[in-house]
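We emphasize that the prediction below concerns an isolated chain of 230 residues; any contacts that depend on oligomerization or on bound cofactors are therefore not represented. The input was used exactly as deposited, without trimming of termini.
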Amino acid sequence: MMRIDIISVLPELLVSPFSHSIVKRAQDKSLVEICVHDLREYGKGRYRQVDDYPFGGDAGMVLMVEPVFTLMDKLKKDRSYDEIIYMSPDGELLDQPMANRISCLENIMILCGHYKGIDHRIREHLITREISIGNYVLSGGEIPAAALVDSVVRLIPGALSDETSALSDSFQDRLLSPPVYTRPAEFNGWKVPEVLLCGNPRLIRTWQEEQSLSRTEQLRPELLDHPGPK
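Result of the prediction step, given as a token string:
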């Protein structure tokens, strides 16, 4: 079973994403255990302080090194982690091959940044990998963490009712998925392509491959130039 520990100053933001659909079913099947930890429980003083002003006089607040270290150290006493991930806009861009590789790990820890960021010593000494979900800044790392977890958990064998479904997702072969249709075969004069109704698996597969390539060339041509995972 995979174990995912998430550190956050706003753990309530992660309740809904993990309480429904595929991620919830994976937890119910004991395929994954997701534990969200409130960093404020390790803060100091009456207000459980976990942030402070940055040295140098810049605006904003920064997560302090001590509460993060204390919580991470406690977690690491119970298990060893394959990756300790910091969700950061300047990290590696999350893609399908990365999600595939992470889904094969046993224990991962995810730190959600907040405010202006985190004390850089955390990144230097505690984090093993930094991941971004895009070239933009959000208020915190909870949404990126939820995106990472969802992309990984759905790949765990048994999480999907049809395990072959994940193999045909967009980006699995660095191509976009072909168009998909369902009943009725005609609506408002709009018809499903005849090839999908012919019952010939070889012809259908050929059409799907042609459509995937065509859509990728049109919509995401940069994927065709990507060197692929090492």
